[in-house]
Amino acid sequence: MITRFNALLAALLMACAFSAQAAQGDYTVEVLIFSQSGYGDGAAPYELMDANSPPPAIAESSQPSPYNGLPFSQLESLPRDRFQLGDDAARLRREGYQILWHGGWYQNVSTGRNPYVRIQSGDGRVDGVIKVDRGRYLHFKPDLLLSRSAAAETASPRYRFKQSRRMRSEQLHYLDHPHFGMLVIINPLR
Questions:
Q1: Residues 110-166: pLDDT tens digits?
Q2: In this structure, is residue 16 part of a structural domain?
Q3: Structural domain tally of the chain?
Q4: Quick check: is 141 in a domain?
Q5: What global pTM score does this model have?
Q6: Which range of residues forms the domain containing residue 60?
Q7: Which of 54, 133, 135, 153 is the most buried (most CB within 10 A)?
Q8: Can you tell me the distance from the alpha carbon of 22 to that of 102, in angstroms, rounded to the nearest whole number?
Q9: Quick one: signal sequence residues (predicted)?
Q10: What is the DSSP string of 106-120?
Q11: Is residue 15 part of a domain?
Q12: Residue 31 covered by a domain
């Protein structure tokens, strides 16, 4: 009886170890992009873009699929109940900022080729891609075209937000631009 129990316990421990090993590199990525109302009005634009010029890599990007309630699969949208930046979004709104895009996704981030994730707001103010890579640290690489007003409203100038930032997981990061801001948190999937 004890031998059978030990064998069962050993099998269970091996399954848990295999599951933890398989989950290595699985992360949730949450991004909050907001307009810094009034700030940077006198600043020279960062790479002011022609309204028709798309950011690179849109053709090679993938849109996260809707979350289906099952265990994580590559590039699935993060359900709103898993968002961590909701309080930050509410505080920014109270302080007069405009939330341009708030979303997230599940992703297996490997040290090899990782997909570009397509980011697009319904009103056309945000369009582009974000890539997350992993080396010793996580590397967050947005390449976005941003506009202060909806595409349908006016021929508002579009600005390029292209950066590469080394990040640690489970820490809130802020990326800055004269006209926009971005909060990012990347967490290991648990």
A1: 877 888 999 999 888 899 999 999 988 899 999 998 887 776 556 677 788 888 999
A2: no
A3: 1
A4: yes
A5: 0.77
A6: 26-188
A7: 133
A8: 29
A9: 1-22
A10: EEE--SS--PEEEEE
A11: no
A12: yes
